[in-house]
Amino acid sequence: MKLTRFRWWHIDQTLAIEADLFGVEQWSAAMFWNELANGHHYLVALDDAGDVTGYAGLAVQPPDEAWVQNIAVRRDAQRGGIGRQLLEALLAEAARRGIGRILLEVAVDNAPAQRLYAGYDFEPVGIRRGYYQPSNTDALVMMKSG
Tens digit of pLDDT per residue, the chain (146 long)? Predict the structure, then answer.
């Protein structure tokens, strides 16, 4: 597995992962294009064949805040440490940029992701009611300082 910069040609494979994992709440191609156009820090995890197995993004908001936009791993590649590696790479980029506060949103019913984030010192700081649409699922806002 290799982490590399997310490029426009990764979007099609990313959309297939989005559809499988998030269904009607998936991101669109336009949303990924917008993230790339705005210069956000995005990575993909590629397998030996060069196929996308996961992706993650970090939106930096100067002077010292960043948001983890998404972290997703293809279903057949989950539980192999890819999500952890993607998160560690985002945290390293935030540290490189001197970011003091990193935030993210995670579905309140996604306990595995919450445990992953808690293992990296993210703590719950709020709830966004009905954040994920159309399911109306709440989002837990988590933050890591320092």
Answer: 999 999 999 999 999 999 999 988 999 999 999 999 999 999 999 999 999 999 999 999 888 999 999 999 999 999 899 999 999 999 999 999 999 899 999 999 999 999 999 999 999 999 999 999 899 999 999 999 96
CA atoms within 13 A on the CB side of 96: 9
Specify which residues 124 forms β-bridges with.
142
Q: Is 29 left (phi over 0), alpha (psi -120 to 50) or beta?
A: alpha
Domains of the chain: 2-145 (3.40.630.30)
d(CA 97, CA 112): 28
